[in-house]
Amino acid sequence: MGFSVLVLFVLLGLSCKGLLLVKSQKSDSNFDENYKVTWGFDHVLSLNQGTQIQLSMDKSSGAGFASKQSYSSGFINLRTKLPDRDSAGVVTAFYLSSDGDKHDELDFEFLGNREGKAVTLQTNVFANGQGNREQRTLLWFDPSNDFHTYSILWNPYQIVFFVDDTPIRVFKNNTKKGVNYPTKPMKIQVSLWNGEDWATDGGKTKTNWAYAPFKAHFQGFHVDGCSSVNSDCNSENKYFWNTKKYQSLDSNQIRAYEKVRKNYMNYDYCSDRSRYPTPPPECLDKP
């Protein structure tokens, strides 16, 4: 078990015993095997024989890359080190997204901040074009000091967002309650871009271009996902992320999840009565 995970257990007072760990990435997988650059080509640098990618952003452009294939289920992981120093206004995004107007999307958006202030991690879930499900969590470590693993578990039962091995968000399949659930084939997308109009303090804190170029680094390009060309992406026998132990959180995961929400979450759409006088039906679920 990695040092960063052990530190997290100490910070949150968690026990390692019985915790369902994220399946380890093959961190030495080559970028070109599963991904391709999609924009900002002159702001992308391949390092360590293609096992690490650097995206940079300056006033002229940011950059992005995406998976070559679309996936219909999976346990999608990416190891990321965010821009250091003053990163206010800078957005590093790791997400899954389908095509079309009524698209499905699962978002990690890292909202940069002034040096010494915590980075906010915003997550969102879109299903059939409906989003507006933002949750924001302050990261309890400096994500620019080292690589951390950010993961999205997506199967027919639940969607779980992980930071390292700790679940920070759960979105269950509530189609029986009339809640749309992401089912469309999605590509993995990664980008680094200027979000100073909204990302830090609601857009009040702007990007300090004296610190440009801003650089984000990525590792772990192996993909544990079922390609959308297959017809059995919900199979429990073929794909580990569909098996019983991935269909709900275990007791240790629930405790870790609740501690993160209590100590680090600073916005939840489910609690925003100005937007939702009556909480959306999925908000009534327990993890």
From TrEMBL:
GO terms for biological process: cell wall biogenesis; cell wall organization; xyloglucan metabolic process. It is an enzyme of class 2 (transferase). Keywords: Apoplast, Cell wall, Cell wall biogenesis/degradation, Disulfide bond, Glycosidase, Hydrolase, Secreted, Signal, Transferase. It comes from the Eukaryota. InterPro entries: Beta-glucanase-like (IPR000757), Beta-glucanase/XTH (IPR044791), Beta_glucanase (IPR008264), ConA-like_dom_sf (IPR013320), XET_C (IPR010713), XTH (IPR016455). Residues 23-218 form the GH16 domain. PROSITE patterns: GH16_2. One of its GO terms (molecular function) is xyloglucan:xyloglucosyl transferase activity. SUPFAM superfamilies: Concanavalin A-like lectins/glucanases (SSF49899). Residues 1-18 form the signal peptide. The keyword Hydrolase applies. Its EC number is 2.4.1.207. Contains at least one intrachain disulfide bond essential for its enzymatic activity. The active site is at residues 105, 109. It is found in: Secreted, Cell wall; Secreted, Extracellular space, Apoplast. It holds the Pfam family Glyco_hydro_16. PANTHER family: XYLOGLUCAN ENDOTRANSGLUCOSYLASE/HYDROLASE PROTEIN 8-RELATED (PTHR31062). Catalyzes xyloglucan endohydrolysis (XEH) and/or endotransglycosylation (XET). Cleaves and religates xyloglucan polymers, an essential constituent of the primary cell wall, and thereby participates in cell wall construction of growing tissues. Belongs to the glycosyl hydrolase 16 family. This is Xyloglucan endotransglucosylase/hydrolase. It comes from Cannabis sativa (Hemp).
